[in-house]
Amino acid sequence: MEQDLRSAEFGPPGPLRDQLVRLILDGQKTVTSSLVSDYEIEGEALPEPGELDLLLDSNDRGVAVLETVAITVVPLGDIPWSHVVAEGEGHTSLDEWRRDHEGFWAAHSPIGRLDDSTPVVMQEFRVVKRLVAD
User: Fold this and answer.
1) pTM here?
2) Where does the ASCH domain lie (predicted)?
3) Staple 74 to which of 23, 36, 57, 78, CB 3.0 to 4.6 Å?
C-alpha cells in the first residue's frame, strides 16, 4: 500500500525536515502550509480530504502514513492564529510565522514576491499509521 502513495516531504532533507517529522510523529504538528503556485508549477492537484500520503524522513524513508483531514485555501494575509498554533513549530506571533514561512518559500519556491493576497493551502492531516518505532 505505501508504495502507491504520494510522498509527503516537509522541507528539504536535513535538520528542518527531521524536526518537522518528529513534531508530526509526536502529534504536535497537525497542519501545514504550502503555496498554491507550487502545486500549479508541479502540475499536481491540491490534496483532498481522505487522501493518504507517505511521510518521508531525511533519508527518503517512509515513516508514517498521513491522511488529509481538511484543505482550505486562503490569502497569506488571512492565515489564522489557530493554524499557526496547530503547525506546532513554536511561533509566538503571526508576524514571526510569516517571516519564517516567507523566508522558506523564497528559498525553495520559484514564485517570487509574496504579498497578502498570495494563495496559501492550509492542510490539516493526521497520522493513520506509523511505519517506524520510536
Assistant:
1) 0.91
2) 8-129
3) 78
